[in-house]
Amino acid sequence: MLKKRIIPVQLLLNGRLVKTQRFDSFRDVGDPVKSSAVYNSQYADELVFLNIAREGQSVKPLAAFLERVSEVCFMPLAIGGGIRSFEDAAFLIQNGADKIVLNSVAYKDKSVITRVADRFGAQAVVVGIDAARRADGSYVARSHCGRNEEVVKIEDHIRSCEAAGAGEFFVQSIDNDGMMEGFDVPLIKLVSAIATVPVIGCGGSGNYNHLRDAFLETGVSALACGSLFNFSDSNPLRAKAFLSNYGLAFKVV
Amino acid sequence: MIGILDLGIGNLRSLSNAIHQNGFDSQVIKDETSFADLSHLIIPGVGHFQPAMAAVVDRKLRAPIHAYVATGRPLLGVCLGMQLLAARGTEGGEVDGIGLIPGTIKRLTPGAGYRIPHVGWNVLMTKRAHPVYEGLKNERDFYFVHSFAMVCDAADDVLGETDYGGPVTAVIGRNNVVGFQFHPEKSEVNGLKLLENFCLWDGKC
To answer: Is the dihedral of CA B186, B187, B189, B192 positive or negative?
Structure first.
């Protein structure tokens, strides 16, 4: 049986690990290589890194960072944030990334998804979708770290990204990010219902009950947590110990 | 010397780091010129069968790989690298594989409710004893990412399976050749243990 995954998500800003609230007001929370080594010792299932620095960034520093992480982490590593082309993606994969997360470029040029999937396989392409809730309960996709509103419907975007070759979706709630009040269950449900590839839900975990609710109510493949592991006395091992009381199965080491 | 064959696809660094973590040196090799110096050969790989096999053919590696195996030294294929060991691939039309283990690469058809690709941690159920399993507990989880899997012609070549809407070949082996469908270099302690066992293996079983 395929196990559920719990994925620490780490935001990178100029070589530091930071944590945001609603994609804003970030706080420095340490050194990302050291925290990754700790996650390795806690048998995390996978790590996701999202670079939130933008101006004038090339992917070279990210590759140098990945090189250091892959010396201390023996689990799948996904990285995204500011990948603009096939060449950026290929460079990161050749330097230690198992998956790359494409977000803004996926709205503009789906051929990047296709080229990466053709070369490295669909499993290497994660499409990140940042969604904001409207007053009427519907969702709107936002690109460029939440700054730009996209006109395409999220449902249509998921279908066209999948047709282009996406192997996984990483869906993040902008409203719930860093609030530690629970995942956006309707959003994760919406994406899981349309996508036929695995879905990772992110944004809002503050305690283990939030993980339980999201796993049980949505059937999502994986949940990603930032603040929960950054700020509280929580870790993936304890999360799994708690969740295994509710019929959820995790990796046995 | 442990050689990692570079077919120009994917992430070799994780594999060399995992081997280094076990206390062994490895070298990335691009052609057969250094095959003579190797004690062990690893063929990694992610992506599609057809272009990867085209890289093997273009670099004229099929015959040298067969010659290497004939010397009795251990060979390991990882993920797509394991699939290349098969006789045939069906991803993107029927293509001949390296042909070390009789079998066909077929798309996973797990049925309703199962997402493709098969991504994540799944249980390895060992089918018979093998030196690479030394000291490993049975029914531990390993990291899989694939949409195609090997169907062996001979049941004896299947050393381990996982379950994803039906049995999926996870470990294959015949004489001094083994293959892992999952990524040992991404499977934490148990994956590192398998790699260590491979690096210590003399190719006999």
So the answer is: negative
pLDDT band of residue A56 (cuts 50, 70, 90) is: low
Percent of chain B whose predicted confidence (pLDDT) is above 90: 87
- Counting other chains too, the contacts that A241-244 makes at CB distance below 8 Å and 24 or more residues apart are A242/A208, A242/A211, A242/A212, A243/A4, A243/A208, A243/A211, A243/A212, A243/A215
pLDDT tens digits along B133-148:
999 999 999 999 999 9
CB atoms within 10 A of CB A238: 12
Number of helical H runs and strand E runs in chain A: 10, 12
A121:B163 CB<8 A: no
pTM of the model: 0.94
**Contact criterion met (CB < 8 Å) for A3 and B192:** no
Q: Which of A1, A121, A250 sits opposite B46 (nearest CB)?
A: A121
With beta carbons less than 8 A apart as the criterion, state whether A173 and A133 touch: yes
Nearest Cα to Cα of residue B21 among A65, A75, A192, A238: A75
Indicate if B205 belongs to the active site.
no
Crossing angle of the two packed helices B49-58 and B62-70, in degrees rounded to 10: 80
Any catalytic annotation for residue B183? yes
Whole-number Cα distances in Å, A138 to A154, A155, A194: 10, 11, 15
User: What are the chain A neighbours of B139 within 8 Å (beta carbons)?
Assistant: 252
User: Would you tell me the crossing angle of helices A185-194 and A208-218 to the nearest 10 degrees?
Assistant: 30
Question: Which of B30, B141, B187 to mutate: most A Cβ within 10 Å?
Answer: B141
Cα–Cα distance for residue pair A171/A134, rounded to 1 Å: 16
Rounded Cα–Cα distance for residues A149 and A84 (Å)? 18
Q: Which of B11, B187, B192 sits opposite A96 (nearest CB)?
A: B11
Pick the residue from chain A with its C-alpha nearest to B163. A1
pLDDT tens by residue, A205-230: 999 999 999 999 998 999 999 999 99
